[in-house]
From TrEMBL:
Keywords: Membrane, Transmembrane, Transmembrane helix. Residues 372-393 are annotated as: Disordered. The keyword Metal-binding does not apply. The chain crosses the membrane at residues 6-27, 144-162, 193-213, 340-361. PANTHER family: BLL7967 PROTEIN (PTHR34219:SF3), IRON-REGULATED INNER MEMBRANE PROTEIN-RELATED (PTHR34219). It comes from the Bacteria. This is Iron-regulated membrane protein.
Length: 393
């Protein structure tokens, strides 16, 4: 058996083992690709048509009104510099109340069900979690399959590479052919999808591996010439949430946070606990898809003085590379074009799984037919007994 033949069988075997998981990740990933745009379109009717020209209410009034509208503890507040966009008060991961940022009037839940759907898909894709319950064993299997997919991409390129580098050999492996049917068509599709999407899929799989494994994360930091940092995998229990009668203590910090970046487009505040003296903010100069446009600000809750300011350039090289990996994984880093490529990569991954399984089943069926045929030939070639010869005569 040649080395190329051996690589093919390893490629096929690994593909059969991880195929279903990769298909699952491809489907959930494709759903999440344009999540912000889909939610924004669904909540288009919630836009503030005529913003109030007079003085606006304090930000704490937005939190109070939202808390009166929806029982529970608010966890974050998002404000936008665009007066037409309503503020967002979150109650957990998938529940949001939209509020007019100027007059404080509650608009409603917006596309609450749609947000909840995307939140569930995201939890499935990242953690193999449903209804807040993480399945760590399944997550470990998912992470291993992502890592194995890197091998599938690289070995697939080696197998794909023609033995003779000529156009007549390259063309069937690079372009779709309409005149093919059955196994030949699936083989053509498998080659074409794998060839054109190899680079995006490799980037997605490698960045996914970095986010999945501490050792891969450490390698990234070392490659950047930085010291690896420990990652907190367990979520800490939140302390007692800030009660509604103390929301007013946040107004000064919110106003001071807005002055930290004159170009801010969105400001997100995570509500502190009752005993936390500081308030954490995230200011973004874009649409949230580029880490270079983000700034982390921590202010004191009492007098609003600056405790810590971290822009993207203030991060260590390893941390910057890690942020790049996160936003390259989803395609957000490159705007709409990056999201389109990420969507096409997810579709291609699903097609690679489908065509790979189909080709494997066809190969298995062909092998069984050959085995049965050889068995029949061997049976017919056996010498007949005298009784069988007499019966034949």
């Amino acid at each position: 058996m040649t080395l190329r033949r051996l690589l093919f069988w390893v490629h096929l075997s690994v593909g059969v083992i991880i195929g279903l998981v990769i298909g699952f990740l491809a489907v959930t990933g494709s759903i999440l690709t344009f999540q912000p745009q889909i939610v924004a379109f669904a909540e288009k009717s919630a836009q503030v048509a005529s913003p109030t020209q007079g003085p606006c209410v304090a930000p704490s009034d937005l939190l109070k009104n939202a808390s009166n509208y929806r029982p529970g503890s608010a966890t974050s507040l998002v404000l936008f510099s665009d007066p037409h966009r309503p503020g967002e008060v979150s109650f957990g991961a998938d529940s949001v109340v939209l509020v007019n940022s100027c007059d404080g009037q509650v608009i409603g839940n917006g596309a609450g069900k749609l947000r909840g759907f995307f939140s569930s898909v995201r939890d499935l894709h990242r953690w193999v979690a449903l209804n807040g319950v993480r399945h760590e064993r399944l997550r470990s299997i998912k992470d291993f399959c992502v890592f194995a997919f890197v091998f599938m991409i690289l070995s697939g390129l080696v197998i794909w590479f023609p033995r003779k580098l000529a156009w007549q050999h390259l063309r069937p492996a690079v372009f779709f052919r309409r005149d093919l049917r059955g196994r030949a068509r699936e083989w053509n599709w498998h080659n074409v999808f794998g060839f054109w999407m190899a680079t995006p899929l490799a980037v997605i799989a490698l960045s996914g591996t970095i986010m999945a494994y501490p050792w891969a994360n450490a390698l990234l930091y070392r490659a950047a010439g930085d010291r690896p940092t420990e990652r907190a995998e367990t979520e800490q229990r939140r302390a007692k949430p800030l009660p509604a009668d103390k929301f007013a203590s946040l107004d000064l910090a919110i106003r001071d946070a807005m002055t930290q970046d004159a170009k801010w487009q969105s400001l997100e505040m995570r509500l502190p606990s009752d005993k936390d003296p500081n308030v954490a903010f995230r200011l973004d100069e874009g649409d949230g898809s580029d880490p270079r446009q983000r700034m982390q600000v921590v202010l004191a809750r009492t007098d609003g003085h600056v405790v810590r300011v971290e822009s993207f350039s203030n991060n260590s090289p390893g941390r910057r590379w890690r942020l790049y990996a996160r936003f390259v994984h989803t395609g957000e880093m490159f705007g709409t074009a990056g999201r389109i490529v990420a969507l096409l990569a997810c579709i291609s991954a699903f097609m690679l799984v489908w065509t790979g399984f189909s080709l494997s089943l066809r190969r298995l069926a062909s092998w069984r037919r050959r085995k049965a045929s050889h068995g029949n030939v061997a049976g017919q070639s056996k010498p007949k007994s005298p009784v069988q010869e007499a019966a034949r005569v």
